Amino acid sequence: MCFSIKKVVALMLISAVAAFAKPTIYILATGGTIAGSGSGELSTSYTSGTVTVDKLIAAVPQINEIATIKGEQISQIGSQEMNNEVWLKLAKRVNELLTTGKADGIVITHGTDTMEETAYFLDLVVKSDKPIVMVGAMRNSTSMSADGPLNLFNAVNVAMSKDAVGKGVLVTMNDEIHAAREVTKTNTTAVDTFKSPNTGKIGTVFYGNVKFYMAPVRKHTTNSMFDITKITELPRVDIVYSHANDNADFVNVALKNGAKGIVSAGMGNGNPFPSVLKALNEGAKNGVIVVRDSRVGTGETTRNGEVNDDENGFVASDNLNAQKARVLLMLALTKTTDKAKIQEIFYTH
User: Fold this and answer.
1) DSSP strand E in the chain: where?
2) Is 99 an annotated catalytic residue?
3) Which SUPFAM superfamilies match (predicted)?
4) Which of these, 89, 133, 256, 323, is most buried using a 10 Å CB contact count?
5) Of 3.40.50.1170, 3.90.226.10, 3.40.50.720, 3.40.720.10, which CATH number belongs to 24-223?
6) Does the annotation place 113 within a ligand binding site?
7) According to the annotation, is 112 in a ligand binding site?
8) What is the CATH number of domain 237-347?
9) pLDDT in tens, 262-284
């Protein structure tokens, strides 16, 4: 009887310790403005990626009080330099940390220029329900009223939140939480630049207080069809931007240089200039996957509108912007070149 009581007490103590154990959050740093430094508080000139992950963590000591923080430097670049190699390296490390149980959540510091693309790529290829949070800053670390420290504090709190489980990759900036598929950068310099124009934000985080109001419904993470375990490179996909009095030169260059896919950011509801339409049609006939998108930035590019997608052999992008359509098309091409199947992927992911 005495042994049983001791055993019960021991189990209760273990449970109590586990209940109060701090979660392990990995901060994976890639560079960007959040890790940038300039010549002074009022200078608009700065260099991205100069601050290392250990210094980013040291600048926000409060995060060590709420979580066991571990940092890794994945890259030190401005996000305008982001490339497929870094994406694959980052995604494989995130998968390793989460699926092996080393991390309870992941925070990725990143430049804002291509944050939405990296977020969507990870949203499609990471195989875990655990929270993954992208965060950055619009003001560098030496700037007056730098927004990076509070953004990072909020991102760690989101990565710790049980309510963030199963919601895919999230972007946390300026007290708001956005789904990776929906978010885009809308202003060159403003701290409230990140918006989800088609759907709105899915939550808020105010000095660490996390609240969710909606959840993404398209396929992501564990129910996404993509697996990059054995992938070492991604197929080339180019974006061609339309304008009045356009010409087909850029389409023809893309085709000549081996593009496997082209995203056409057309006018209005994805409408290309006539000569561009003809060139895209020729590319589609020769096996290049053409996704018809819009330069407008919001709304759905509807299938078979003014352009007959069936006759031209095109895929419609649904409501993805051109840069995210490119991400999805690259991954789709690792699975199939069947246009009907790729169209279905655009409607489900």
Assistant:
1) 24-31, 37-38, 46-47, 68-77, 105-109, 132-135, 169-173, 176-179, 184-185, 194-195, 203-206, 209-212, 237-241, 261-266, 289-294, 315-316
2) no
3) Glutaminase/Asparaginase (SSF53774)
4) 133
5) 3.40.50.1170
6) yes
7) yes
8) 3.40.50.40
9) 999 999 999 999 999 999 999 99
